[in-house]
Amino acid sequence: MMQHKKTCMSSLIVILPSALPTASTPCSTVWTEDGSTAKRQLDAPLNLLPQTADAEIVVVVPAAQLSWHRVDFPKGTLERGFFQEGNAPRLRAVLDGLLEDRLLDEPAHLHFAIQPQTRADAPNWVAACNRAWLHAWLAALEQNGRPVARIVPELAPPPDAAPDAVSLNAMGTAEQPQLVCSGPYGVVVLPLTHNSIALLTQNIDASLVLAEPAVAALAEQHFSGRVSLQTAAQRAMTAVQSAWDLAQFDLLRTRGTRTRKQLTALASDLLQSPRWKPARWAAIAIVLANLIGLQAWAWKEQAALAAKRTALREILTMTFPDTRVVVDAPLQMARSLADLQRQSGAASSGDLETMLGTFQAVAPEIAAPIAIEFVANELRMKLADPSAPTLPAAITRLQAQGYSVTHDGDRLVLKQQDRRP
What we know:
The chain is α+β, with helices and mostly antiparallel strands. The protein is 35% helix and 22% strand. The protein is built from ten helices and 17 strands. The protein has helices at residues 88-99, 131-143, 194-201, 216-222, 232-240, 253-272, 277-319, 329-344, 352-362, 391-400; strands at 11-15, 27-32, 38-44, 56-61, 67-71, 110-114, 124-130, 150-153, 167-172, 177-183, 186-191, 209-211, 227-229, 371-375, 378-382, 403-408, 411-416. A five-stranded mixed beta sheet has the order 3-2-1-4-8. A hairpin with a 2-residue loop joins strand 16 and strand 17 (411-416). The protein is elongated. Residues 1-7 have low confidence and may be disordered.
């Protein structure tokens, strides 16, 4: 559920400020073409952000804007396809009830998101942030022609595969340094001070601390030999690679936007990218080869059918030279043969004697008809016992010998079928 697959398409990553959007509020952005290398970094207002016609726009929610809660959902709540089946309002109501006593704000004022790959038999992480603030930024980005495809947290609790993993991140400015701890108890944001570090180190053991350049020296004082540099842009790109997507409940539409943009980008890449040129030519060659093969097969079949028709016409004209125009060779041959049999006095399969004899042969146990009528090679009989148990089997045998049989009440009608190939 809600799993995001890593993609190599270009992305514009927007790190949201904590303030509400205005015309002059600057945003930190990272432009990447492969998801791992920052090609361009920029701090600019919304209307001056880079144009991203073919890129996925991903929003990063700062760690300070999110609170994290471990929730045990009632049995049956997290069913497969819960969001897709239109049940999101019910799940939201369940969350409101479960978290009401844990939140400092009213649930209606918050936006919730459930962890990816939810588990029905264990607690799941739920992220919460100010709903008005998040919606305001998403609306501002969309109004500036940059609809958001995905929303990710800057830092998230460890995945279920490594629930005890701990990471420490020193960030911020030299005037306001922060220490963010991600571990089994969620994500905690504290000031980067001796007291905070002493409190954390009593409960956790982190072998590595990632620090932004502005606070690296201060972090080195507290975590000597354990500090590694990581810029805000690098942290944002790492966040984008996670499976999280906060676009849930009333923000599900952003997923549709993401899917459409990914499909559009993929189609554009396949049709225009030079690296796919050999594949495009190969696909065209395969299609042309199949079309040529199908056309050749059709010509062969048409030629074989024409040869059979010609052979039938020749047999008809050779056997019955009086035939001048050939329209339906098998039917004309059957009729000519019947005429020849009548002229010679021989009985044909469509004569009264032959049809009566055939009926008697296939149904000897059925009583003789009480009335017989023969008109235009059609034999009509009124049966003495129309419900005889052996009648259906007799009808089947008559049909196998080339007769069409109609049974209606006590009437049985036999007629020779036209025999065509």
